[in-house]
Amino acid sequence: MDPVRVGILGLGTVGGGTVSLLRRNAEPLERRLGRSLEVTRVAVKDPSKPRPVELDGIDVGTDAESICTDPEIDIVIELVGGVDNAEPLVRKALEHGKPVVTANKALLAERGNELFRFAGEKGVDLAFEAAVAGGIPIIKALREGLAGNRIESVHAIANGTANYMLSRMRTEGMEFEDALKEAQDLGYAELDPTFDVDGIDAAHKLALVAAVAFGAPINYQALHIEGIRSITREDILYAGELGYRIKLLAITKHGPDGGIELRVHPALVPEDTMLASVEGVFNAVQVVGDAVGPTLYYGPGAGADPTASAVVGDLVDVARTLGASPEYRVPYLGFRADGMQEPRWAHVEEVETEYYLRMQAQDQPGVLAQVTRILSEEGISIEAFRQKEPHPGDTDVPVVLLTHTTKERAMRRAVAAIDQLDVINGPSQLLRLEEVDAV
Ligand SMILES: NC(=O)C1=CN([C@@H]2O[C@H](COP(=O)(O)OP(=O)(O)OC[C@H]3O[C@@H](n4cnc5c(N)ncnc54)[C@H](O)[C@@H]3O)[C@@H](O)[C@H]2O)C=CC1
Ligand SMILES: N[C@@H](CC=O)C(=O)O
Ligand code: NA
Protein backbone atom coordinates (compact mmCIF):
# COMPACT_ATOMS: atom_id res chain seq x y z
CA MET A 1 0.00 0.00 0.00
CA ASP A 2 1.08 3.60 -0.53
CA PRO A 3 2.76 5.29 2.42
CA VAL A 4 0.76 7.73 4.54
CA ARG A 5 2.29 11.13 3.76
CA VAL A 6 2.76 13.29 6.83
CA GLY A 7 3.54 17.01 7.07
CA ILE A 8 4.91 18.41 10.32
CA LEU A 9 4.59 22.06 11.32
CA GLY A 10 7.34 23.07 13.78
CA LEU A 11 10.58 21.23 14.45
CA GLY A 12 11.33 22.13 18.08
CA THR A 13 11.43 19.72 21.02
CA VAL A 14 8.32 17.75 20.09
CA GLY A 15 8.59 18.10 16.30
CA GLY A 16 12.20 16.88 16.38
CA GLY A 17 11.25 14.03 18.71
CA THR A 18 8.41 13.01 16.41
CA VAL A 19 10.60 12.86 13.28
CA SER A 20 13.19 10.80 15.18
CA LEU A 21 10.63 8.41 16.61
CA LEU A 22 8.95 7.82 13.25
CA ARG A 23 12.32 6.92 11.79
CA ARG A 24 13.48 4.81 14.70
CA ASN A 25 10.28 2.76 14.92
CA ALA A 26 9.37 2.70 11.23
CA GLU A 27 9.41 -1.10 11.11
CA PRO A 28 7.05 -1.88 14.03
CA LEU A 29 4.84 1.05 12.98
CA GLU A 30 4.41 -0.43 9.53
CA ARG A 31 3.60 -3.80 11.04
CA ARG A 32 0.90 -2.15 13.20
CA LEU A 33 -0.62 -0.08 10.40
CA GLY A 34 -0.01 -2.13 7.27
CA ARG A 35 1.36 1.04 5.62
CA SER A 36 4.44 3.11 6.23
CA LEU A 37 4.25 6.57 7.80
CA GLU A 38 6.46 8.89 5.80
CA VAL A 39 7.26 12.46 6.81
CA THR A 40 7.51 14.14 3.41
CA ARG A 41 7.41 17.82 4.43
CA VAL A 42 8.40 19.83 7.49
CA ALA A 43 7.93 23.56 8.14
CA VAL A 44 10.46 25.39 10.30
CA LYS A 45 11.02 29.04 11.20
CA ASP A 46 14.74 29.06 10.54
CA PRO A 47 16.02 26.54 7.95
CA SER A 48 19.68 27.41 8.65
CA LYS A 49 19.41 26.26 12.28
CA PRO A 50 21.30 23.00 12.94
CA ARG A 51 18.88 20.24 14.03
CA PRO A 52 19.76 17.21 16.12
CA VAL A 53 17.58 15.07 13.87
CA GLU A 54 18.17 13.36 10.51
CA LEU A 55 16.13 15.15 7.82
CA ASP A 56 17.36 13.51 4.60
CA GLY A 57 14.56 12.86 2.13
CA ILE A 58 12.30 15.42 3.82
CA ASP A 59 11.34 18.69 2.12
CA VAL A 60 12.22 21.32 4.75
CA GLY A 61 10.71 24.79 4.14
CA THR A 62 9.32 27.80 5.92
CA ASP A 63 5.82 27.88 4.44
CA ALA A 64 3.69 26.04 6.99
CA GLU A 65 0.44 27.02 5.30
CA SER A 66 1.42 25.38 2.03
CA ILE A 67 1.74 22.05 3.87
CA CYS A 68 -1.84 22.47 5.10
CA THR A 69 -3.14 22.89 1.55
CA ASP A 70 -0.80 20.40 -0.19
CA PRO A 71 -2.81 17.66 -1.93
CA GLU A 72 0.20 15.37 -1.52
CA ILE A 73 -0.09 15.48 2.30
CA ASP A 74 -2.50 13.08 4.03
CA ILE A 75 -2.12 14.14 7.70
CA VAL A 76 -0.80 17.36 9.28
CA ILE A 77 0.92 17.41 12.68
CA GLU A 78 0.80 20.83 14.34
CA LEU A 79 3.71 21.40 16.73
CA VAL A 80 4.36 25.13 16.39
CA GLY A 81 2.56 25.99 19.66
CA GLY A 82 0.71 29.19 20.58
CA VAL A 83 -2.92 30.05 19.90
CA ASP A 84 -2.97 32.78 17.27
CA ASN A 85 0.07 31.23 15.59
CA ALA A 86 -1.40 27.74 15.32
CA GLU A 87 -5.14 28.29 14.83
CA PRO A 88 -5.06 29.48 11.20
CA LEU A 89 -2.81 26.56 10.26
CA VAL A 90 -5.03 23.97 11.93
CA ARG A 91 -8.12 25.51 10.32
CA LYS A 92 -6.47 25.56 6.93
CA ALA A 93 -5.55 21.88 7.15
CA LEU A 94 -9.07 20.90 8.31
CA GLU A 95 -10.61 23.05 5.59
CA HIS A 96 -8.58 21.09 3.05
CA GLY A 97 -9.91 17.83 4.46
CA LYS A 98 -6.70 16.88 6.27
CA PRO A 99 -6.84 15.32 9.72
CA VAL A 100 -4.69 17.13 12.27
CA VAL A 101 -2.70 15.75 15.19
CA THR A 102 -1.70 18.40 17.73
CA ALA A 103 0.02 18.68 21.12
CA ASN A 104 -1.32 22.19 21.58
CA LYS A 105 -3.40 22.36 24.76
CA ALA A 106 -3.45 26.17 24.81
CA LEU A 107 -5.09 26.20 21.39
CA LEU A 108 -7.69 23.56 22.26
CA ALA A 109 -8.48 24.94 25.74
CA GLU A 110 -9.20 28.36 24.24
CA ARG A 111 -10.55 27.56 20.76
CA GLY A 112 -11.25 23.82 20.93
CA ASN A 113 -15.06 24.02 20.82
CA GLU A 114 -14.97 25.93 17.51
CA LEU A 115 -12.17 23.79 16.09
CA PHE A 116 -13.87 20.48 16.91
CA ARG A 117 -17.10 21.82 15.42
CA PHE A 118 -15.25 22.83 12.26
CA ALA A 119 -13.43 19.48 12.06
CA GLY A 120 -16.83 17.77 12.44
CA GLU A 121 -18.28 19.81 9.58
CA LYS A 122 -15.33 18.81 7.43
CA GLY A 123 -15.61 15.19 8.56
CA VAL A 124 -11.95 14.96 9.60
CA ASP A 125 -10.13 13.99 12.75
CA LEU A 126 -8.47 16.36 15.22
CA ALA A 127 -6.42 14.31 17.68
CA PHE A 128 -4.75 15.66 20.82
CA GLU A 129 -3.40 12.91 23.10
CA ALA A 130 -0.03 14.69 23.41
CA ALA A 131 -1.76 17.82 24.70
CA VAL A 132 -2.58 16.26 28.08
CA ALA A 133 -0.03 14.68 30.40
CA GLY A 134 2.54 14.14 27.63
CA GLY A 135 3.23 10.47 27.10
CA ILE A 136 0.43 9.14 29.32
CA PRO A 137 -2.44 7.94 27.10
CA ILE A 138 -5.01 9.57 29.37
CA ILE A 139 -7.32 10.90 26.66
CA LYS A 140 -7.61 7.40 25.23
CA ALA A 141 -8.22 5.98 28.70
CA LEU A 142 -10.99 8.47 29.49
CA ARG A 143 -12.59 8.50 26.05
CA GLU A 144 -12.50 4.77 25.40
CA GLY A 145 -11.29 2.60 28.28
CA LEU A 146 -13.54 4.23 30.89
CA ALA A 147 -16.55 4.85 28.62
CA GLY A 148 -18.70 2.55 30.78
CA ASN A 149 -18.34 4.82 33.81
CA ARG A 150 -19.77 8.01 35.18
CA ILE A 151 -16.59 9.83 36.12
CA GLU A 152 -16.61 11.00 39.75
CA SER A 153 -13.30 12.79 40.06
CA VAL A 154 -9.95 13.45 38.43
CA HIS A 155 -6.88 14.52 40.40
CA ALA A 156 -3.87 15.13 38.18
CA ILE A 157 -0.26 16.15 38.40
CA ALA A 158 -0.40 17.52 34.88
CA ASN A 159 2.53 19.89 34.54
CA GLY A 160 5.96 18.28 34.31
CA THR A 161 7.85 21.53 34.77
CA ALA A 162 6.10 22.51 37.99
CA ASN A 163 6.40 19.00 39.40
CA TYR A 164 10.08 18.90 38.47
CA MET A 165 10.64 22.24 40.20
CA LEU A 166 8.80 21.26 43.39
CA SER A 167 10.79 18.00 43.48
CA ARG A 168 14.14 19.76 43.06
CA MET A 169 13.22 22.37 45.68
CA ARG A 170 12.32 19.60 48.13
CA THR A 171 15.12 17.11 47.53
CA GLU A 172 18.00 19.51 46.72
CA GLY A 173 16.82 22.62 48.57
CA MET A 174 17.09 24.35 45.20
CA GLU A 175 15.91 27.92 44.60
CA PHE A 176 12.79 28.40 42.48
CA GLU A 177 14.56 30.17 39.59
CA ASP A 178 17.40 27.59 39.39
CA ALA A 179 14.90 24.73 39.29
CA LEU A 180 12.96 26.48 36.51
CA LYS A 181 16.13 27.01 34.49
CA GLU A 182 16.90 23.28 34.71
CA ALA A 183 13.40 22.36 33.51
CA GLN A 184 13.75 24.77 30.60
CA ASP A 185 17.15 23.34 29.64
CA LEU A 186 15.58 19.87 29.59
CA GLY A 187 12.89 21.01 27.08
CA TYR A 188 9.98 20.59 29.52
CA ALA A 189 8.80 24.19 29.82
CA GLU A 190 6.46 26.10 27.54
CA LEU A 191 7.88 28.88 25.37
CA ASP A 192 6.51 31.24 28.02
CA PRO A 193 7.37 29.39 31.26
CA THR A 194 4.92 31.50 33.26
CA PHE A 195 2.34 29.11 31.79
CA ASP A 196 4.00 26.27 33.73
CA VAL A 197 4.72 28.20 36.92
CA ASP A 198 1.38 29.99 37.19
CA GLY A 199 -0.78 26.92 36.61
CA ILE A 200 -2.01 28.02 33.17
CA ASP A 201 -0.65 25.01 31.30
CA ALA A 202 -2.15 22.60 33.85
CA ALA A 203 -5.42 24.54 33.53
CA HIS A 204 -5.40 24.17 29.74
CA LYS A 205 -5.02 20.43 30.22
CA LEU A 206 -7.71 20.26 32.91
CA ALA A 207 -10.18 22.08 30.66
CA LEU A 208 -9.71 19.28 28.12
CA VAL A 209 -9.83 16.50 30.70
CA ALA A 210 -13.07 17.81 32.20
CA ALA A 211 -14.68 17.96 28.77
CA VAL A 212 -13.73 14.35 28.06
CA ALA A 213 -14.60 13.14 31.58
CA PHE A 214 -18.03 14.76 31.82
CA GLY A 215 -19.08 15.18 28.18
CA ALA A 216 -19.13 18.95 28.63
CA PRO A 217 -18.08 21.72 26.24
CA ILE A 218 -14.52 22.92 26.96
CA ASN A 219 -14.79 25.78 29.45
CA TYR A 220 -11.38 27.22 30.32
CA GLN A 221 -13.03 30.39 31.72
CA ALA A 222 -14.72 28.37 34.49
CA LEU A 223 -11.37 27.34 35.99
CA HIS A 224 -9.92 28.56 39.25
CA ILE A 225 -6.13 28.80 38.77
CA GLU A 226 -3.26 29.30 41.22
CA GLY A 227 0.37 28.50 40.44
CA ILE A 228 3.44 27.57 42.49
CA ARG A 229 5.14 30.97 42.59
CA SER A 230 4.19 31.56 46.25
CA ILE A 231 5.49 28.17 47.46
CA THR A 232 8.60 28.57 49.58
CA ARG A 233 11.16 25.96 50.54
CA GLU A 234 9.84 26.41 54.10
CA ASP A 235 6.30 25.47 53.02
CA ILE A 236 7.73 22.31 51.44
CA LEU A 237 9.68 21.58 54.62
CA TYR A 238 6.80 22.27 57.04
CA ALA A 239 4.39 20.23 54.90
CA GLY A 240 6.92 17.36 55.04
CA GLU A 241 7.10 17.58 58.84
CA LEU A 242 3.31 17.26 58.94
CA GLY A 243 3.39 14.22 56.62
CA TYR A 244 2.53 15.87 53.29
CA ARG A 245 4.12 16.71 49.92
CA ILE A 246 3.18 19.86 48.01
CA LYS A 247 2.05 19.16 44.44
CA LEU A 248 0.51 21.35 41.76
CA LEU A 249 -2.82 19.57 41.28
CA ALA A 250 -5.44 19.86 38.57
CA ILE A 251 -8.75 18.72 40.00
CA THR A 252 -12.23 18.24 38.59
CA LYS A 253 -14.95 16.54 40.59
CA HIS A 254 -18.52 16.80 41.78
CA GLY A 255 -18.56 19.41 44.54
CA PRO A 256 -20.60 19.29 47.77
CA ASP A 257 -23.21 21.76 46.43
CA GLY A 258 -23.83 19.90 43.19
CA GLY A 259 -21.59 21.85 40.79
CA ILE A 260 -18.51 20.46 39.09
CA GLU A 261 -15.27 21.83 40.50
CA LEU A 262 -12.52 22.84 38.09
CA ARG A 263 -9.41 24.01 39.89
CA VAL A 264 -5.63 24.10 39.57
CA HIS A 265 -3.56 24.98 42.62
CA PRO A 266 -0.74 23.73 44.79
CA ALA A 267 -2.03 21.34 47.44
CA LEU A 268 -0.75 19.24 50.33
CA VAL A 269 -1.09 15.55 49.47
CA PRO A 270 -0.60 12.85 52.15
CA GLU A 271 2.92 11.44 51.85
CA ASP A 272 1.75 7.82 51.82
CA THR A 273 -0.34 8.21 48.64
CA MET A 274 0.85 7.30 45.16
CA LEU A 275 0.22 10.84 43.91
CA ALA A 276 2.62 12.19 46.53
CA SER A 277 5.41 9.93 45.26
CA VAL A 278 5.23 11.27 41.69
CA GLU A 279 8.49 13.16 41.28
CA GLY A 280 10.38 15.11 38.65
CA VAL A 281 8.92 15.45 35.16
CA PHE A 282 6.52 12.56 35.78
CA ASN A 283 2.79 13.17 35.70
CA ALA A 284 -0.02 11.12 37.17
CA VAL A 285 -3.75 11.22 36.68
CA GLN A 286 -6.01 9.60 39.24
CA VAL A 287 -9.49 8.98 37.87
CA VAL A 288 -12.37 7.60 39.93
CA GLY A 289 -15.20 6.06 37.93
CA ASP A 290 -18.44 4.83 39.52
CA ALA A 291 -17.92 1.30 38.20
CA VAL A 292 -14.16 0.88 38.14
CA GLY A 293 -13.36 2.81 41.33
CA PRO A 294 -10.00 4.57 41.64
CA THR A 295 -7.50 4.17 38.79
CA LEU A 296 -4.09 5.77 38.30
CA TYR A 297 -2.18 6.60 35.10
CA TYR A 298 1.50 7.45 35.49
CA GLY A 299 4.29 8.41 33.13
CA PRO A 300 6.50 11.18 31.78
CA GLY A 301 4.53 14.38 31.24
CA ALA A 302 6.91 16.30 28.99
CA GLY A 303 10.03 15.98 26.89
CA ALA A 304 10.77 15.04 23.29
CA ASP A 305 10.41 11.25 23.24
CA PRO A 306 7.44 10.85 25.63
CA THR A 307 5.43 13.56 23.86
CA ALA A 308 6.37 12.13 20.47
CA SER A 309 5.07 8.78 21.73
CA ALA A 310 1.60 10.35 22.15
CA VAL A 311 1.79 12.20 18.82
CA VAL A 312 2.70 9.02 16.95
CA GLY A 313 -0.01 7.04 18.79
CA ASP A 314 -2.56 9.54 17.49
CA LEU A 315 -1.00 9.43 14.05
CA VAL A 316 -1.53 5.67 13.88
CA ASP A 317 -5.16 6.03 15.03
CA VAL A 318 -5.86 8.73 12.49
CA ALA A 319 -4.06 6.88 9.67
CA ARG A 320 -6.14 3.76 10.37
CA THR A 321 -9.39 5.61 9.77
CA LEU A 322 -8.25 7.77 6.83
CA GLY A 323 -11.16 7.91 4.42
CA ALA A 324 -13.53 6.11 6.81
CA SER A 325 -16.92 7.59 7.60
CA PRO A 326 -16.78 9.85 10.72
CA GLU A 327 -19.49 7.61 12.23
CA TYR A 328 -16.82 4.93 12.71
CA ARG A 329 -14.43 7.17 14.62
CA VAL A 330 -14.34 7.84 18.34
CA PRO A 331 -15.89 11.33 18.87
CA TYR A 332 -13.27 14.01 19.52
CA LEU A 333 -14.19 14.42 23.18
CA GLY A 334 -15.57 10.90 23.67
CA PHE A 335 -19.21 12.05 23.54
CA ARG A 336 -21.19 12.77 20.38
CA ALA A 337 -21.53 16.49 19.66
CA ASP A 338 -25.31 16.25 20.28
CA GLY A 339 -24.65 14.41 23.57
CA MET A 340 -22.56 17.17 25.18
CA GLN A 341 -24.11 18.95 28.17
CA GLU A 342 -22.98 22.11 29.98
CA PRO A 343 -22.97 21.39 33.74
CA ARG A 344 -23.01 23.96 36.50
CA TRP A 345 -19.35 24.71 37.21
CA ALA A 346 -18.82 25.24 40.94
CA HIS A 347 -17.27 28.43 42.33
CA VAL A 348 -14.07 27.77 44.26
CA GLU A 349 -15.69 29.16 47.43
CA GLU A 350 -17.93 26.07 47.40
CA VAL A 351 -14.90 23.81 47.95
CA GLU A 352 -14.82 21.94 51.26
CA THR A 353 -11.47 20.67 52.42
CA GLU A 354 -8.81 20.96 55.11
CA TYR A 355 -6.32 23.83 54.95
CA TYR A 356 -2.67 24.59 55.72
CA LEU A 357 -2.16 28.14 56.95
CA ARG A 358 1.31 29.67 57.43
CA MET A 359 1.42 33.03 59.19
CA GLN A 360 4.28 35.31 60.13
CA ALA A 361 3.47 36.23 63.75
CA GLN A 362 5.06 38.60 66.23
CA ASP A 363 6.77 36.63 68.97
CA GLN A 364 4.58 37.72 71.90
CA PRO A 365 1.92 36.18 74.15
CA GLY A 366 -1.71 36.14 73.03
CA VAL A 367 -1.16 35.80 69.27
CA LEU A 368 -2.53 32.29 69.08
CA ALA A 369 -5.60 33.33 71.10
CA GLN A 370 -6.41 36.07 68.59
CA VAL A 371 -6.00 33.70 65.62
CA THR A 372 -8.08 30.92 67.16
CA ARG A 373 -10.85 33.40 68.10
CA ILE A 374 -11.19 34.41 64.43
CA LEU A 375 -11.16 30.81 63.27
CA SER A 376 -13.76 29.74 65.81
CA GLU A 377 -16.03 32.67 64.86
CA GLU A 378 -16.05 31.14 61.36
CA GLY A 379 -16.70 27.67 62.79
CA ILE A 380 -13.22 26.42 61.82
CA SER A 381 -11.44 24.00 64.13
CA ILE A 382 -7.71 23.40 64.28
CA GLU A 383 -6.23 19.95 63.74
CA ALA A 384 -2.53 20.74 64.26
CA PHE A 385 -0.51 23.77 65.26
CA ARG A 386 3.26 24.37 65.10
CA GLN A 387 5.39 27.39 65.94
CA LYS A 388 8.65 27.35 63.93
CA GLU A 389 12.11 28.73 64.52
CA PRO A 390 12.40 32.33 63.32
CA HIS A 391 14.71 33.00 60.39
CA PRO A 392 18.02 34.44 61.62
CA GLY A 393 17.57 38.19 62.10
CA ASP A 394 13.74 38.05 61.87
CA THR A 395 11.64 39.41 64.73
CA ASP A 396 8.54 37.44 63.76
CA VAL A 397 8.08 33.68 63.79
CA PRO A 398 6.43 31.37 61.29
CA VAL A 399 3.32 29.72 62.71
CA VAL A 400 1.74 26.85 60.81
CA LEU A 401 -1.63 25.29 61.41
CA LEU A 402 -3.83 22.67 59.77
CA THR A 403 -7.60 22.95 60.00
CA HIS A 404 -10.33 20.35 59.96
CA THR A 405 -12.61 20.30 56.92
CA THR A 406 -14.28 23.62 56.29
CA LYS A 407 -15.89 25.63 53.54
CA GLU A 408 -13.46 27.72 51.50
CA ARG A 409 -15.72 30.77 51.81
CA ALA A 410 -15.34 30.71 55.62
CA MET A 411 -11.62 30.02 55.42
CA ARG A 412 -11.03 32.99 53.13
CA ARG A 413 -12.98 35.32 55.44
CA ALA A 414 -10.96 34.08 58.40
CA VAL A 415 -7.60 34.57 56.68
CA ALA A 416 -8.56 38.09 55.58
CA ALA A 417 -9.37 38.92 59.23
CA ILE A 418 -6.19 37.23 60.52
CA ASP A 419 -4.07 39.25 58.09
CA GLN A 420 -5.62 42.45 59.53
CA LEU A 421 -4.29 41.66 63.04
CA ASP A 422 -1.43 43.92 64.21
CA VAL A 423 0.44 40.85 65.42
CA ILE A 424 0.42 39.16 61.97
CA ASN A 425 2.61 40.23 59.08
CA GLY A 426 0.41 39.20 56.15
CA PRO A 427 -0.35 38.03 53.62
CA SER A 428 -0.46 34.54 55.10
CA GLN A 429 0.03 31.43 52.98
CA LEU A 430 -3.17 29.40 52.55
CA LEU A 431 -2.97 26.00 50.85
CA ARG A 432 -5.59 23.28 50.46
CA LEU A 433 -5.11 19.69 51.59
CA GLU A 434 -6.39 17.10 49.14
CA GLU A 435 -7.46 13.69 50.31
CA VAL A 436 -7.27 11.29 47.36
CA ASP A 437 -8.80 7.81 47.29
CA ALA A 438 -6.27 5.02 47.83
CA VAL A 439 -5.53 3.26 44.54
N1 LIG B 1 7.91 20.29 25.20
C1 LIG B 1 7.08 19.41 25.72
O1 LIG B 1 7.48 18.58 26.54
C2 LIG B 1 5.65 19.41 25.33
C3 LIG B 1 5.12 20.33 24.46
N2 LIG B 1 3.80 20.27 24.12
C4 LIG B 1 3.25 21.21 23.14
O2 LIG B 1 3.84 20.92 21.88
C5 LIG B 1 3.92 22.11 21.13
C6 LIG B 1 5.35 22.33 20.68
O3 LIG B 1 6.13 22.44 21.85
P1 LIG B 1 7.73 22.39 21.81
O4 LIG B 1 8.19 21.45 20.75
O5 LIG B 1 8.16 22.19 23.21
O6 LIG B 1 8.05 23.89 21.39
P2 LIG B 1 9.36 24.46 20.70
O7 LIG B 1 9.37 25.93 20.95
O8 LIG B 1 10.54 23.65 21.08
O9 LIG B 1 9.05 24.18 19.15
C7 LIG B 1 8.16 24.92 18.37
C8 LIG B 1 8.87 25.17 17.04
O10 LIG B 1 7.95 25.67 16.11
C9 LIG B 1 8.61 26.68 15.35
N3 LIG B 1 7.58 27.52 14.75
C10 LIG B 1 6.78 28.43 15.35
N4 LIG B 1 5.94 28.98 14.45
C11 LIG B 1 6.20 28.38 13.27
C12 LIG B 1 5.66 28.51 11.96
N5 LIG B 1 4.66 29.35 11.70
N6 LIG B 1 6.17 27.75 10.98
C13 LIG B 1 7.18 26.87 11.21
N7 LIG B 1 7.73 26.70 12.43
C14 LIG B 1 7.24 27.44 13.43
C15 LIG B 1 9.50 27.39 16.37
O11 LIG B 1 10.53 28.08 15.70
C16 LIG B 1 10.00 26.19 17.18
O12 LIG B 1 11.18 25.63 16.62
C17 LIG B 1 3.34 23.22 22.00
O13 LIG B 1 1.97 23.38 21.69
C18 LIG B 1 3.50 22.66 23.40
O14 LIG B 1 2.56 23.18 24.30
C19 LIG B 1 2.97 19.29 24.60
C20 LIG B 1 3.43 18.35 25.45
C21 LIG B 1 4.80 18.35 25.91
N1 LIG C 1 5.34 22.52 29.68
C1 LIG C 1 4.57 21.32 29.79
C2 LIG C 1 4.89 20.42 28.64
C3 LIG C 1 3.94 19.31 28.51
O1 LIG C 1 2.75 19.48 28.33
C4 LIG C 1 4.90 20.61 31.10
O2 LIG C 1 5.89 20.98 31.73
O3 LIG C 1 4.13 19.73 31.49
NA1 NA D 1 -1.32 12.16 26.82
UniProtKB/TrEMBL annotation:
Database matches in PROSITE patterns: ACT, HOMOSER_DHGENASE
CDD domains, A to Z: ACT_HSDH-Hom
Broadest EC class assigned to this enzyme: oxidoreductase
InterPro entries per UniProt: ACT-like_dom_sf, ACT_dom, Asp/hSer_DH_NAD-bd, HDH, HDH_cat, HDH_CS, NAD(P)-bd_dom_sf
EC number(s) from the headed UniProt entry: 1.1.1.3
SUPFAM superfamilies named among the record's database cross-references: ACT-like, Glyceraldehyde-3-phosphate dehydrogenase-like, C-terminal domain, NAD(P)-binding Rossmann-fold domains
Keyword Transcription: no
ACT domain: residues covered: 356-432
Pathway listed: Amino-acid biosynthesis; L-methionine biosynthesis via de novo pathway; L-homoserine from L-aspartate: step 3/3; Amino-acid biosynthesis; L-threonine biosynthesis; L-threonine from L-aspartate: step 3/5
Alphabetically ordered keywords of this record: Amino-acid biosynthesis, Methionine biosynthesis, NADP, Oxidoreductase, Threonine biosynthesis
Catalysed transformations (reactions): L-homoserine + NAD(+) = L-aspartate 4-semialdehyde + NADH + H(+)
GO molecular function terms listed in the Swiss-Prot or TrEMBL record: homoserine dehydrogenase activity
Oxidoreductase in keyword set: yes
Similarity remark: Belongs to the homoserine dehydrogenase family.
Protein name: Homoserine dehydrogenase
